[in-house]
Amino acid sequence: MTSATPADDILKAFSELQLSTYIFMSGTAFLVTDWFFTLDLEVQYAWNGTWNIGRILFFLTRYSPFFELALRMYCK
C-alpha cells in the first residue's frame, strides 16, 4: 500500500477548493438570476398593502441569502 506524497495532498486540496468555489458561484448566479426574474412580481404583490407576519417572513427569507453571501465573500 502506497501513501500519497505531500504534493498529491496539496493538489487534491486545491482541486476540492476549486470545486467548492464553482458550486458556490453557480448557486450565487442562480440566486441573483431568480431575484431579477421575479422582482416585478415581488413589487406587484409583496411591496403594496399592509404589513403582516406573512409579508415580514417573506422579506426575511427573500433577502437574508444576500446578507449571507456578502458575509461569506467578506470573510474569505
Short synopsis of the structure:
This is DUF6533 domain-containing protein. With about 80 residues, the chain is an all-alpha fold.
Description:
The chain has one domain (6-75). It has 76 residues and is mostly helical. The mean pLDDT is 87. The relative contact order is 0.07. 83% of the residues lie in helices and 0% in strands.
List the helices and strands and how they pair.
Layout: H1 6-45, H2 53-75
Count of DSSP H/I helices = 2
Label the overall shape: elongated
Mean pLDDT: 87
Instruction: Please provide the ordered H/E string of secondary-structure elements.
Output: HH
Provide the descriptors you would attach to this structure in a database record.
single chain, 76 residues
